[in-house]
What does this fold into?
Amino acid sequence: MTGMTDLKQRWSRVPEGSAVLFMVQVFATLGFAVLQSTLVLYCTRRLGFGSDQAALMMGLFGAFNYGLHLFGGYLGGRFLSNRNLFVGGMLLQVLGCGAIAGGTLAGLYWGLALFLTGSGLNVTCLNMMLTQRFAPEDDRREAAFLWNYAGMNVGFFIGFTVAGNYQLEEAYSTIFWFATVGNAMAIVLALVFWRTLADRDTPLSQRRGGAFWTRFAVGVAVLGGLVPVLAALLQHPADTAIGMKALCTAVGIALLVLTLRHPVAAERRRMQAYLVLTLGSLVFWSLYQMAPSGLQLYAVGNVWMNVWGLPVAPQWVQNINTVVIVIGGPWLAAVFARWRARGWPVDIPLQFAASLVLMGLGFLALPAGILLADPATGRADFAWLFLSYVLQSMGELLISPVGYAMIGRLAPRQYQGVMMGSWMLVTGLASLFAGDFSGVVAQPVEGAALATNAAYARLFTQLALGSLATGALMWAVRPWLRQLIDGTPAR
It folds into this structure.
């Protein structure tokens, strides 16, 4: 009886809607998991793309997905409620996965355009709906985002597992129809708990009558109008990638100007810390985003994809990441709470520095595996790839959910949506850089490991050293960042 009472008390302390958002996150992630893990393989094995073309397409996939988060952060709560924008975006994802399942090149371009418009605009909505359920000083915010991040990775685990199972048979149509059904379930959940997910204290919630419906019409027009634009851009990937990089540069300059002109000194200092941490995250995500492109091509062509005599599908490799996140997310939230209760200084700058060091060590594991590869075939043992993913995932746990949660702390309320979107835009830019890195090593026709091992070893070593150097720099400026964030003197 006491245990039941404790459970009810704990549940009563969870803000309304947090548990629902956890479940919605699981199903909303399925389509993205399938496309992220299968797109490069589908393009190269079914549509005849070269490895560099497929890597560029994967780079644009990430760039549009994360880049549109900036736009979604502005639309959500201003022109469409976050829950309306989420459901509309999920509907486009459902249509997109269905179009890709048709198996044609035109279906790929239009399907990706539909899917990326939806996923690009609606992901920020989930984070903003969760953010709205906590006061700025609420210590439960970080734990809630860690739990929600774990929910996202449950969706990734299911998506990667099912996609990998059908990948062994190269049943691509079945893979994409599975994604279609999974995303449809997210819409069903959102509709069932519609009132629970209502927006709180947004500019749109203060509008009534004609002003409300005018904004609503603009939001719907944006949802529909972006689709043909993206479809056209995806058919000219090289030029589009250059344009996306220019856009990201412009947004970075705009944020810098906004920060320097902000009138409130304490808020301006925290915005400065945000910009510095953003640069560190760009390095981390540029390497992390190589998992579905360059690292996947490396795994297929240069790694012995077999464990204890059983074949390993390429998508299953990415489940190493999901398992680490699902288990480590809640555990890390509890550990951090215990350490902070003891007075240990576990803060944002420390976590960012540690994440970059772990990413560097993860990439160093790959050339180590190449060095010890089978001399006859050139294929590295799967254990080295496994170790690399574990280290990268540990780094992700330190930087990603904390990065989302810190927006509520570092961003002034009027800029929260835009700064949340900008934070995700960094991941989009990183996806383009990851595509550039992934296209450096051209795969031979048969994927002969001996022909590409030297180039891969050189690339992975250079990327690892860059991440380690950035982590060391972030460690060195920790006192200054703490001063910006907390207003305490540097020590």
